[in-house]
Design brief:
This protein is α/β, with parallel strands linked by helices. The chain has one domain: Rossmann fold (3-Layer(aba) Sandwich), CATH 3.40.50. The protein has 3 helices and 7 strands, in the order E-E-E-H-E-H-E-H-E-E. Strands 1-2-4-3-5-6-7 form a 7-stranded mixed beta sheet, with helices on both faces. Helix 1 links the parallel strand 3 and strand 4. Helix 2 runs parallel beside helix 3. It is globular, with a radius of gyration of 15 Å. It starts with 5 loop residues before the first strand and ends in a 9-residue tail after the last strand.
């Protein structure tokens, strides 16, 4: 691989992004996977603010590359605009296979999906659970930047660019998660 290689997998119509990968070095030994809510419009050629933040986090913590996967692959800059048909079981199953594949190539995983978004709160919760369940065990562990304040008794892993109180890019400040971190039953 050449230095700084980037790769992304999109659906044929471009409405879904299954993963985005950035490698800072030719043959990365350590990668980190960020599992977020849904992709915005970043591509393998153009970053958005969230991907730039994740690149800084990965680089500043000694990783040579990173993947960004999402609980729902539908591309939208606002999760509340993701249509209900984006939660199609076949699409989510395909997405889970990409998440599983990416997680096998990483030694650390940060879950950063944020809070479920209305009007599809239950669909988001199901998508979170399905996506997290597809992750493989990692020697570097599972983390959240931090957990949000509980909503109906459930604390969700914070998005990498939350409004107000920014997350720390220092791994020492992250919240370790158990492998069975799943969204509480409805």
């Amino acid at each position: 691989m050449r230095r700084g290689e980037r790769h992304a997998v999109f659906s044929a119509d471009g409405n879904q992004r299954f993963y985005l990968r950035h490698d800072f070095e030719c043959q990365p030994q350590r990668r980190i996977l960020f599992l977020c809510m849904n992709p915005s419009f970043a591509t393998d050629e153009r970053d958005d603010r969230t991907v730039r933040k994740l690149a800084d986090v990965a680089h500043n913590n000694g990783f040579q590359g990173f993947f960004v996967c999402n609980c729902v692959p539908y591309r939208s800059s606002r999760p509340r605009d993701v249509p209900p048909d984006a939660f199609n079981r076949q699409v989510l199953a395909k997405n889970a296979r990409y998440i599983s594949r990416a997680s096998r190539m990483c030694d650390t995983i940060v879950i950063a999906h944020g809070n479920p978004s209305a009007p599809n709160t239950n669909l988001w919760r199901q998508a979170f659970t399905h996506a997290v369940a597809s992750l493989n065990e990692q020697p570097g562990g599972f983390f959240a930047f931090r957990l949000n304040n509980p909503i109906r008794g459930v604390s969700y892993a914070c998005h990498p660019k939350p409004r107000g109180n920014p997350v720390s890019i220092d791994r020492e400040d992250w919240t370790p998660l158990e492998r069975d971190y799943l969204i509480a039953p409805e």
